[in-house]
């Protein structure tokens, strides 16, 4: 089964061309919920539930809004988080936030969502938010193979050693500016407010295979799950913390 993320943040299920509905069955408050989740996502959700129970302050940060679905909703939709996704060709970051607002159970995936949803909803719907220094936004993966210290090493030399190397796999999010010969140059966005690029087109990029100290990478086709996509974007946006902390750190960074 493959999910398509469309305009307005609508998630459609390609197999039967059906559209997932926004469903709620009440909210629960931090420290007062009795929950138990199951499956792969269950281990992740249980850790979130424990944080809510042990310390609600981790999640509210004095925000006005909560979006915490009941156990029944999470159990109903948790299996979708592992599904492969495709994006509508005109999908933007605004559509991403519309999706997060529409399907409130997705907001369980990160404690920084409330602040960034507030920021998103404060931006007028008719305000066009485009960046001059980038051509599009991209979610991509990078696989870093460590313990390789020569910049000129070849794949044949690596594969012929019989050695097992340490590696790290990341799913990331950044802006892209096309250079000469359409070479994509990554643009950091963690210091920028949403209004700077909310209406930029958003795409799914390749997996970059990086060896040690080599500057260049091998690009491979790859798939993205709904979980990877949702988490990669909010992780990068909240790199500095809440929107208020981001603005403060950006001011300090550009003043120094």
| Low-pLDDT windows of residues | 23-44, 49-70
Q: Given the structure, what is the number of helices?
A: 8
What Rg is obtained from the alpha carbons, in whole angstroms? 20 Å
How many structural domains are formed by the residues? 2
- The protein's oligomeric status is single chain
Q: Strand share of the residues?
A: 15-25%
For the record, give the distance between the C-alpha atoms at the N and C termini, rounded to a whole number: 50 Å
Biggest sheet overview: 5 strands, mixed
Q: Strand order of the main beta sheet, please?
A: 7-6-5-8-9
Series of secondary-structure elements, N-terminal to C-terminal: EEEHHHEHHEHEEEEHH
Principal-axis shape equals: globular
Percent helix range: 25-40%
Average pLDDT figure: 77
Provide a descriptive summary of the structure in words:
With about 260 residues, the protein is of the alpha+beta class. It folds into two domains: about 1-120, no CATH class; about 135-255, no CATH class. It is about 30% helix and about 20% strand. The chain has eight helices and nine strands. Strands 7-6-5-8-9 form a five-stranded mixed sheet. A four-stranded mixed sheet has the order 3-2-1-4, with no helix packed on it. A hairpin with a 4-residue loop joins strand 2 and strand 3. The longest helix has 15 residues, at about 40-55. It is globular, with a radius of gyration of 20 Å. The model is unreliable at about 25-45 and about 50-70 (pLDDT under 50).
